[in-house]
Design a protein that fits this description.
The complex is a heterodimer of chains A (404) and B (234).
Chain A (H helix, E strand, L loop, with lengths): L2 H12 L3 H41 L2 E4 L28 E15 L4 E9 L1 H7 L6 E4 L10 E4 H7 L6 E7 L5 E13 L4 H5 E5 H8 L6 E6 L5 H11 L4 E4 H4 L1 H39 L1 H9 L4 H33 L4 E2 L4 H6 L5 E2 L5 H27 L3 H5 L2
Parallel strand pairs in A: 3-8, 5-7
Antiparallel strand pairs in A: 1-9, 1-10, 2-3, 2-6, 2-9, 4-7, 5-8, 6-7, 11-12
Chain B lengths: L3 E14 L2 E14 L3 E5 L6 H8 L7 E6 L2 E2 L5 H11 E4 L11 H12 L3 H14 L15 H13 L5 E5 L7 H17 L3 E6 L2 H6 L2 E6 L2 E7 L6
Parallel strand pairs in B: 3-8, 3-9, 6-7, 7-8
Antiparallel strand pairs in B: 1-2, 1-4, 4-5, 9-10
Classes of the chains: A alpha+beta (404), B alpha/beta (234).
Chain lengths: 404, 234
């Protein structure tokens, strides 16, 4: 088949109806650019969801004792040697930490609340969790031996307490007996009103272990450089932590994982809907182009062009216009993503954004694979849209066409 | 028999016009040998264009069969008929039918491109034929930038550049003035005499008939007369 000839004919035919094809080209370009921008915003939202899930104490992977998730008590703690370090290469892991997390009751002079009390090493948390990033009124915890407590702004408000005051913590010790201790409030962390802020309090891991009467921990949390290392890291942890559960963030936060999956599907659905809408415009334009050239197609057939070549010519015309609009749309879309690289401020809609799992600033995140999928879908659209016009073109009988 | 380019036997073509059968051609027998210049003449509805279309594999007969350069058309599929038109037949249409987006040279190259002739050879042959027909300076012009006569000459160049066994011309002078028609007919005669191209033309133009060496007159779908004319008379 003379592909070069067909390409030449198709290319020049596109220029015969410049205005019509320019409008079609523009429509496709705008749609592709919108797909790139909105796709990257959805990815940005997805990124936020994952980061929130991972940074909100989950990590990419977490080691827990069996049954701890159902009953998160100190009875389900496990021993960890002082010199323990996960067997995960440095180039795959950002950091890791051990924690003690137990249910507790916090009492101020005025109120009592049920909370999760977490004993942490602030130095290790710095690399892997939200604790290092949040604003703290007062002082953050200094180290693993800090015996003060860090409350969320929201929790402090509910307890009607403040920085410098004392609260009483009551929880169950490793021996099953209730333990009680007073903690001075070091600071109040501001996690933008999230659920964490209302129900999590932090103190140094060593004072908490002392209160509970144990040296055990309830979890080991690992933050990876990329979630794709999760499977190999999981294998390494499972091997060295025999008898314990190694869970990824999706298992630890199924709701966030479900939102993440929905966003994945949502992008594809969004692409398909927009491109299908375009397909009808493309079909209409191509049919017009074919009907205008009935005589010409008849002449080409009369001169000896095979029916298959006629089909290919129509398909090439469609693919050419989509391909150029695709290239232009990607350039414009990437430009828009760059323009919004600092993020779109959603602080006016913070409450709604939080409900949707978004942060107050939505930062677009462009993924090459999405652009490639979009490109493949657009080319498939071009071929699909040209099928009917091509069928119309090939049904033209040379003699009937020449008689027109 | 080896120089028989067209062989029609008992050729009939019936159209259904509003369920009423119209017999455009009724049992025509016609042989054309290599090198002939034949005009199919007759009034409108006599069947001359129908016969030309059947010979050119653009239409299928209701009865009978056509053999072109040894190939029987009966039973050939659309793609095979397209191949036959591509390799054995050159067409000159009433309305020129050049490809509007291609230049004169590219139009002449078109058939060769479909045939897979290498680019260099294609270009040389196209320029050579345009030059031999006195149109070298028009090589880069598109059809819209040429007169009707010029376009028809390019169409002739396109039709003969691949040296087909048969050149079919359907009312080639219909859109031309008498002066231009004369020039075109001189060209066709030259092609017939110098290149020995077999030409069959359907026409009702007496001037076109006068240039043919064989005049086949059709009437009501049948051959009414078939005369060979000597070179001196023509």
């Amino acid at each position: 088949m003379p592909l070069r000839l067909l390409l030449q004919l198709s290319w020049r035919n596109l220029w015969r109806h410049r205005r019509r094809n320019l409008m079609l080209f523009t429509a496709i370009l705008v749609a592709i650019a919108a797909c790139v921008l909105l796709g990257s915003l959805i990815r940005g939202m997805q990124n936020d969801m994952m980061k929130d899930a991972v940074e909100n104490l989950s990590g990419n992977l977490k080691v827990l004792a069996p049954g701890y998730r159902e009953d998160p008590s100190i009875e389900r703690a496990f021993a960890l040697t002082e010199d323990y370090r996960p067997d995960i290469p440095d180039d795959e892991m950002i950091g890791w930490t051990r924690r003690v997390r137990v249910p507790a009751v916090v009492t101020s002079e005025r109120e009592t609340r049920g909370i999760s009390l977490v004993g942490v090493d602030p130095g290790e948390e710095r690399a892997i969790s939200f604790l290092a990033q949040v604003d703290v009124r007062g002082e953050p915890l200094a180290d693993a031996d800090d015996d003060r407590i860090l409350l969320g702004v929201e929790l402090a408000a509910r307890l009607d307490t403040a920085v410098g005051r004392r609260v009483v913590i009551m929880t169950q010790g490793a021996d099953g007996r209730n333990r009680e201790a007073g903690f001075r409030v070091a600071g109040l962390y501001d996690a933008s009103g999230t659920a964490l802020e209302k129900s999590y309090a932090f103190t140094g891991i060593h004072p908490l272990q002392k209160l509970l009467g144990t040296n055990d921990v309830t979890e080991v949390s690992v933050r990876l450089r990329d979630d794709r290392f999760s499977a190999s890291a999981n294998r390494a942890l499972s091997k060295e932590m025999g008898g314990l559960e190694v869970l990824n963030w999706r298992q630890l936060d199924p709701q966030a994982a479900a939102f993440y999956e929905i966003a994945d599907v949502g992008i594809t659905i969004w692409y398909v809907i927009l491109l299908l809408a375009l397909a009808f415009g493309l079909i209409n334009s191509l049919i017009t182009a074919v009907l205008e050239r009935v005589r010409e197609f008849g002449m080409l057939r009369a001169l000896g062009m095979r029916p298959r070549a006629v089909v290919v010519q129509v398909v090439i015309e469609s693919v050419l216009i989509v391909a150029f609009a695709l290239a232009g749309g990607i350039v414009v879309g990437v430009g828009l993503v760059a323009f919004f690289a600092d993020g779109i401020d959603l602080s006016n809609y913070a409450a709604g954004a939080e409900l949707a799992g978004m942060r107050s600033r939505l930062v677009p995140h462009l993924i090459a694979r999405d652009v490639m999928v979009l490109g493949a879908l657009a080319v498939a659209l071009a071929v699909f849209a040209s099928a009917y016009p091509a069928w119309r073109a090939v049904r033209i009988k040379p003699l009937d066409a020449l008689r027109r | 028999m080896s120089d028989l380019v067209v062989r029609c036997r008992n050729l009939g073509r019936t159209y259904d016009a509003d369920a009423i059968p119209v017999h455009a051609l009724r049992g025509v027998d016609l042989d054309v040998v290599a090198g002939e210049f034949v005009s199919l003449a007759g009034p409108s509805g006599s069947g001359k264009s129908t016969l030309l279309n059947l010979i050119g594999a653009l239409d299928r007969p209701s009865t009978g069969d056509v053999v072109v350069d040894g190939v029987a058309l009966a039973g050939l599929g659309e793609a095979q008929l397209a191949d036959l038109r591509l390799t054995k037949i050159g067409f000159v249409f009433q309305a020129y039918n050049l490809i509007p987006v291609l230049s004169a040279r590219e139009n002449v190259e078109f058939i060769m491109q479909l045939q897979g002739v290498p680019a260099r050879e294609r270009r040389d042959r196209a320029l050579e034929i345009l030059a031999s027909l006195g149109m070298a300076e028009l090589a880069d012009r598109r059809p819209g930038e040429m007169s009707g006569g010029q376009q028809q000459r390019v169409a002739v160049a396109r039709a003969i550049v691949t040296r087909p066994a048969l050149l079919l011309a359907d009312e080639p002078s219909a859109n031309l003035d008498s002066e231009t028609t004369k020039g075109l007919l001189e060209l066709l005669r030259r092609i017939n005499e110098e290149r020995h191209v077999t030409i069959v033309t359907a026409t009702h133009d007496p001037m076109v008939m006068s240039y043919a060496r064989r005049r086949v007159q059709l009437l009501d779908g049948r051959i009414a007369s078939d005369q060979r004319v000597s070179a001196e008379t023509a």
